[in-house]
Amino acid sequence: MLPWHSSLQMRSRHFAGACALAFCMTAATSSAQNARISGVVFDSLHGTALRGAEVHLADLTAPSQLRVTLTDSTGAFSFDQVGAGRYGIGFLHPLLDSLALDPRTHEVAVPGDTASLTLFVPSARAMVRSICRADVQVDSTGLFLGRVRRVGDKPAASGGVQVSWAELRFNRLGVERKTPTLTAQTGPGGWFAICGVPLETPISVRAWIARDSTGLLELDIPANGLLRRDLYASDAKATVSVQTTSTRVPRDGFPPLIRHDTVSMTRSVKGAGRLRGRVVASTGAPVAEVRVALWGTGHETLTDPDGRFEMDSVPAGSQTLIARFLGFRPYRAIVDIVPPDEGQHEVTLEPLVVALDTVRVLVPLARDSWRAGFDERRRVGQGEFILDTEIARRNSPAISTLLQGTRGLDIIATGPFRKTALMRSLGGGQCVPTVLLDGIRVVEGADDLDLLVNPTDIAAVEVYPRASLVPTAFVDARSVCGAIVIWTTMKRR
User: Fold this and answer.
1) Per residue in 86-122, pLDDT tens?
2) What residues pair up with 461 in beta bridges, in sequence order?
3) How many Å apart are CA 105 and CA 111, to the nearest integer?
4) pLDDT at res. 18
5) Architecture in CATH for domain 371-409+425-488
6) Is it the case that residue 485 has pLDDT exceeding 80?
7) What number is the average pLDDT over the span 370-380?
8) Does domain 134-233 have CATH number 2.70.150.10?
9) CATH class of the domain whose range is 8-122
10) Domain limits of the chain?
11) How far apart are CA 11 and CA 145, in angstroms?
12) Which of 11, 192, 208, 384 is at a distance of 20 to 30 A from 91, taking alpha carbons?
């Protein structure tokens, strides 16, 4: 049973019962003693002839007399010396299995000389319309179809797949970011189908079977509306490494207080997999010193002079491979690591071509107009303040590095190239602070600090570790957390 039908028989009728969806026949006959049945098998999903399809022909009055032939490179097939009568015809092909389509036998009457037939696999749009009751061109949503498979010799179990994506919505408060989520449970054989997924939009995917799971994956529903992919789940062991600092805080009349602050937090996932590969440029030349990582696992390495890389003890299953190097477009792909086979992956980096010159926008504002308010808040001393002289002294390569060690602020690694800021909430747990850039609130700005602004453009930073310390001008009524306020330079030329 598949998740979107109540029985395999219903699935077969659903796809094979109508000419518009599955294996359609158009017959032209003429009278004679011996007939010839010929035709073509067409793959509507990919817009090509279906080569290597196994076409079956059976006399319905004598079903045991089965004749079989294969389609050629043009998808054509033929049966000679066929007597007049009623016949059943159908075809088998791995493509049908990959789409969870049951082969069907169709009846054709052959009264005489020849019969011409056309058999075909349904198009992506037809499958979406049939399964999801949606029109790809009208709804701009599609279907994610596949199977969740378990790595290793483990018994089958029920599982699920969850997809989510980011949406930006504009309202009177500014830009609001939403994260819609869809979840589907797998059926027999691990099959799943998720409808309503937006087209050509990056979606985050994670699948699981019992305690086994995939990594966090990023996929796209193509413009035709159908994404067909199997996902491999495996068990892995996650560990968290925390680096802290201890500061001795003197107190008048009392013993000194030892304060422990979290400087960094790194999550690492280990498993029984092994991944090897090579990174080359579009010219075929190897690229050395490329940073290669498995997204969200804590595993990363650099390529050698031949462009080769190798990672051991990585989590098996479907994972996201990332490769980055200056002057090339960031590379991201899904790799399936299934021990005992070593995962082999060839990475081709495309050069980063700048099509347009930089556009400079001059804003007629007074330079450092924020300075008076900043100096007054610094005089009151309710927060932590980093001045331009200190910023220049530290010469930090990223905002996360600049803010590390700030009182009441934790910087944690949520990915190989992603750092998130956390503070203590009113209830005692951790919370995500409000981030303001030049006095303007940045929606979810703390989720990926290093994307906000280049550290060389920062003039000063204010950090308020508790909600009660945040000045009125920076208060977010929806937040129970502190705030980070970043001021940038106004360079005149």
Assistant:
1) 888 999 998 888 887 877 778 888 776 677 888 888 8
2) 386, 486
3) 19
4) 32
5) Beta Complex (2.170)
6) yes
7) 87
8) no
9) mainly beta
10) 8-122, 134-233, 271-349, 371-409+425-488
11) 14
12) 192
